Amino acid sequence: MLQRRQATRVLCRHCSPCHVCGLSLVSDFSQLAQRLGVSFRVIALLEEALTHRSYLNEHPEWARPHNERLEFLGDAVLELVVTQHLFRAYPDATEGELTNLRAALVRTETLADAAKDLYLNGFLLLSRGEARDTGRAREAILANTIEAIIGAIFLDQGFAIAEEFVTRVVLAKLSSVIAQEKVRDAKSRFQEIAQDRLGLTPHYAVLEEWGPDHARSFRVGAMLGDEVAGVGEGASKQDAQQEAATAALRAKGWR
């Protein structure tokens, strides 16, 4: 138990003052369950949802697997809940409009913001190296953890409770996403303007990738023919493409 308390202290430098670092991890997870508004029957599912692959490298004694399977499941539940809500809420929207709305809600940035609202940083089980990285890689980890938690809730409580959680935590951001004009993402804007002004459809090329399998980073070029119009980096190819499109829009002076 001493080792687990020490691990919690390493992580708790990111969390809010209400967390008591001397508590066991099980107590901390119970606190988080209360914050999530979910009464877990099997708290081990929540522990698994918060376990990043890197943590197991330094803590082979930890009894839970990493969260990637739960993330896979939660991603599907999240997409279904969001898709169903948007389909019902916007009966006159086209398929393309609904797709853009959904993409804005489930993108890394939006999910990471939702994770920060829940102070998940203070509960992530990460290696010491990952714990020190608070940049784009952490954003991706937070987004993936939200999906894993959704998967855990679905397994433990069923679809209805998972749907309520997604509605309260993710869909609650819909109005701000629309207000901040994040619906039409940078790739869509870049393609629309490039086709209108140049008659070209942009494509994207991976220029470089690095890092271990569980924390890969990508540098991607937004291409107009053979021209590299913009370069972006991200913890996934999709995020790097968005950053590259944003850079290309800025470089071209397109709005």
Secondary structure: elements and pairs:
Layout (H helix, E strand, L loop, with lengths): L1 H10 L13 H12 L6 H7 L3 H6 L9 H22 L5 H12 L1 H10 L10 H5 L3 H22 L1 H11 L4 H6 L6 H13 L4 E8 L6 E8 L2 E8 L2 H16 L3
Antiparallel strand pairs: 1-2, 2-3
Helix pairs in contact: 3-9, 5-6, 5-9, 5-10, 7-9, 9-10, 12-13
Q: Can you identify the CATH superfamily of the largest domain?
A: Ribonuclease III domain
Q: What's the CATH topology name of the largest domain?
A: Ribonuclease iii, N-terminal Endonuclease Domain, Chain A
| Strand runs, count | 3
Structural class: mainly alpha
Report the span from N to C terminus: 55 Å
What integer value in Å does the Rg equal?
20 Å
User: What's the story with the biggest beta sheet?
Assistant: 3 strands, antiparallel
What is the CATH class designation of the largest domain? Mainly Alpha
Please state roughly what percent of the residues sit in beta strands, choosing from under 5%, 5-15%, 15-25%, 25-35%, 35-45% or over 45%: 5-15%
- Bulk shape: globular
Helical segment count: 13
CATH structural architecture of the largest domain? Orthogonal Bundle
Major sheet: arrangement of strands: 1-2-3
> What's the pLDDT, averaged over the residues?
84
* SSE arrangement, N to C: HHHHHHHHHHHHEEEH
Percentage of residues assigned to helices: 55-70%
Which residues form runs of ≥5 with pLDDT under 50? Answer: 1-24
